[in-house]
Amino acid sequence: MNSVELKSRTKQFSLRVIRLVRALPADKVADVIGKQLLRSGTSVGANYRSACRAKSQADFINKIHIAEEETDESIFWMELLIEGKIVEDGLLHDLMKEASELLAIFSASAITARKNK
């Protein structure tokens, strides 16, 4: 997968997170978790784009790790939505699968970048 495709994929992930947060129930717990998910989920694409503009290999590694961390955090918030019985598991299955795939891509990119350093 090239960087253009991954930029598009991470942007689509962010847009899906936005739609999910908008659809959450209007209660205090969903609001707090939703805000956290919105922050981490939308930063995935932003941090990947930042990594693509890295000024050095070390800068790339640092920024791709941030994208990795934000993706993992997004998975955590989605798990809380499911385990807290705020959203049904089936409704988040595809989005969590995409987050897991993005996480694997970022992890592999970081490993490769460290080896090539």
Automatic annotation (TrEMBL):
A UniProt-annotated Pfam family: 23S_rRNA_IVP
Looking up InterPro entries in the UniProt record yields: 23S_rRNA-intervening_sequence, 23S_rRNA_IVS_sf
TM ranges are none
Q: Which PANTHER family match?
A: FOUR HELIX BUNDLE PROTEIN (PTHR38471:SF2)
NCBIfam families recorded: four helix bundle protein (TIGR02436)
The protein's name is Four helix bundle protein
| Organism in which the protein naturally occurs | Emticicia agri
